[in-house]
Structure formats: structure tokens, C-alpha cells
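Bug #77: duplicate submission created two jobs. Keeping one. Sequence:
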Amino acid sequence: MAVAGLSLEIRPGRVTGFLGPNGAGKSTTMRMITGLDAPTAGTALIDGRPYATLPHPLREVGALLEAGSAHPGRTARSHLLGIARSNGIPARRVAEVLELAGLAEVARKRVGSFSLGMNQRLGIAAALLGDPRVLLFDEPVNGLDPDGVRWIRELIRSLAAEGRTVFLSSHLMSEMQETADHLVVIGRGRLIADAPIAEVIGGSARNAVRVRSPRAEDLGRRLLGSGMTVESPNAGEIMVGGGSLDAIGELAFAEGIPLHELSPRQATLEQAYMELTADSVEYGEREGK
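Kept job's structure:
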């Protein structure tokens, strides 16, 4: 799947996470991919074709863009059955996706009685109805309890493992870190990052090495002379940036400085994301407020 306006390609067999500040255009991008919004420039293609030209779109692309779109007077089964019949999808598939989404027992209940989490599950079932090769999920964990969050995480990972293309937008950084293989980050109309998640986190300035030693201050001074950064959060402890475990350990050995701890402290995705988008936030608190 290609989005030419952003000059990126979303590949099969992996979960591509889609991040950006509020108002950056994540939901709009997904709507443009599915032909619901028209881009002012550029193109969005599925296997080299616009969504509108696909002969059987629901069999090729499944999308959860807005939960709660089902008519409240319909049952979950009738909602999915209507979609299936209008798209040439066998009726037996309805029972399969209801079971997969954990809604088999409430299949004949009216959607108006559903909780937010149940509506979210119904939206996911609808996205899976055509057994598509490409899946777009916009904030799929909204309203889900912890069991539901784990379920959707495992489902998304399994879909990618089957060779499908999965494009996932979420504001929950911890879930994105657990689920995504690759990240696309946008802000203020530009592409900020398009890289494996490990590379994005690895580039954070918050990655450091924790060192404990009775001569921590002496070691810190020597490390500063080697071009590393050093912070001293507590007595007998330093946090070192820009240096590897091997380099720090070898320098300490050469100086005869005993070490009580030498361990990596990896940045979180949230920390890396905040660094990347620091200049791209459009809606946030202003200084002095």
C-alpha cells in the first residue's frame, strides 16, 4: 500500500504504526486511503490502484475508522449480514467474525445496547468480514478493557504474521510499542519518521547507561573527557549518554575504578516520540498557562 503524498510505502507482513500529534492528519490519511476524503495533492494506492477502482473493496481492504457507525436498532448479526450481502460475502462469514470478535453470545442483541468496547469489537468484526489482505485500524483499543486490549494486540500481530498489511493508528504509546514493527510519524504536514520501531527508540537521547561505583564522580569526569554526557541523579551513581557498555567498562577498568553496576536504560517509545514531535505539536498548552 502506497501513500504518495507522504512518500511512503506500507508493506505486508508487518504492523506499521501511525503516530502524530492531534490534528496532524492521521485519521484523514486513512480516510483518503479508503476514498472517503479526497487529497488536495498526491495519491493513495492499494496494490497500485485507488481504492475506488478495486473490484471487491471489502475483500481487499478492511477498515475500522469510526466505531459506533452501526444502526442502534439492528442486531450485531443483521448489521454484519447486510454488509456481507451487499458485497458478495458468504453469510457463514458473519458467524466466523462474530466468534473471532468475542460477540457470538450477543449476536442477536441490538447494537443500541452495546457498550463502547462492544461497538469497537463489532467494528473490528466488520473490518475482518471480507478476509482482506490490507487492514486499517484507527484507535482500535478505544473502550476496550484490559482483556480486550490484549485480544486486539494479539489479533493484529497474528494478522501481520499471516502476511497481511496492517496499518495502525493509536495514541497509546505503550500499546504501540508492544504491537508495531515499523513506525510512520507525521506532524505539521511532513513526514518525521519512517523506520523500524527499534531504530526510532534507539535514536532517542534518553537512552543511557546506569553506572554505580564508589568512585562515580571520578569516572564521570573521565567519561566527559571522552565525549559522553554524564548526569548524577544520586551519590555514587551516574547516567551516561552517548557511550556503550563496553566503552564505559573498559575505561573504568583502565582507570582501576570498581563498578557495582553497569546496565542499559532504554528510552520508551513515548520518550522517543515526544522528542521527534517536539516542534510539531499544534494543539497543546502554551507556556505561562
